[in-house]
Specification:
Blueprint (H helix, E strand, L loop, with lengths): L25 E10 L5 E9 L13 E8 L13 H4 L16 E6 L9 E6 L2 H4 E3 L9 E9 L11 E9 L15 E5 L5
Antiparallel strand pairs: 1-2, 2-7, 3-6, 3-8, 4-5, 8-9
């Protein structure tokens, strides 16, 4: 069986870096799972951690996460990128070639700080099916937040199941838009571990 990679992603151009948070709120991208059935699907979750003394009525944080697939070997995305703009260029996703690609969005993701360039990972569908995002009204409160299910083969023409990753972001309270700002240090990023 082909190895599947799962991770969770959110805003464009996010590198796998971590910012320091005085309040100790953080997000953890947990391993997603392949769910057998007709069709085979992918699910995932993120976990929002808050300090033990956080009041029950504390305001939720901004951020979220998305299920992303590695479609580079199938001609969608780029093996090397510097920003999410690279991953959404016509060279990366030719949205005019197939109506199914209209809702696809590419994210430039660095899996580690040692990488000299990111890799394009694609949200192969609309954000309402592949993501949970505070900008769409999902409150990032402490605890688990579920993602999916989505089909493991986002296009029926794919000869095999793609690899998936999980990538998440949570913004500092003082900078709520930080997850949408590629260079911001006012956020914390998390990538789930790769599956065997």
């Amino acid at each position: 069986m082909r190895k599947l990679r799962f991770a969770l992603a959110l805003a464009g151009g996010l590198a796998a870096t971590h910012a320091t948070h005085a309040e100790d709120w953080r997000v953890e991208a947990r391993s997603a799972k392949r769910v057998d059935g007709e069709p085979t699907q992918v699910v995932g979750d993120i976990y929002v951690h808050a300090p033990a003394d956080t009041p029950a009525d504390a305001a939720p944080r901004m951020g979220g996460g998305c299920l992303l697939a590695d479609l580079v070997e199938y001609g969608i995305g780029l093996a090397s990128c510097a920003s999410s703009a690279d991953c959404n260029s016509p060279a990366a996703i030719d949205k005019s070639s197939d109506p199914q690609l209209q809702s696809f969005y590419g994210y430039c993701v660095w899996r580690s700080a040692n990488e000299s360039a990111g890799r394009c990972w694609t949200r192969p569908g609309p954000p309402n099916s592949h993501c949970i995002r505070s900008i769409d009204g999902h409150a990032l409160t402490p605890g688990a937040h579920q993602l999916g299910p989505v089909p493991v083969r986002p296009l029926s023409t794919l000869p095999a199941e793609p690899e998936w990753i999980v990538f998440a972001c949570i913004a500092d309270e003082a900078h709520p838009a930080a997850c949408g700002e590629p260079e911001s240090q006012s956020r914390q990023i998390s990538t789930s571990p790769l599956r065997d």
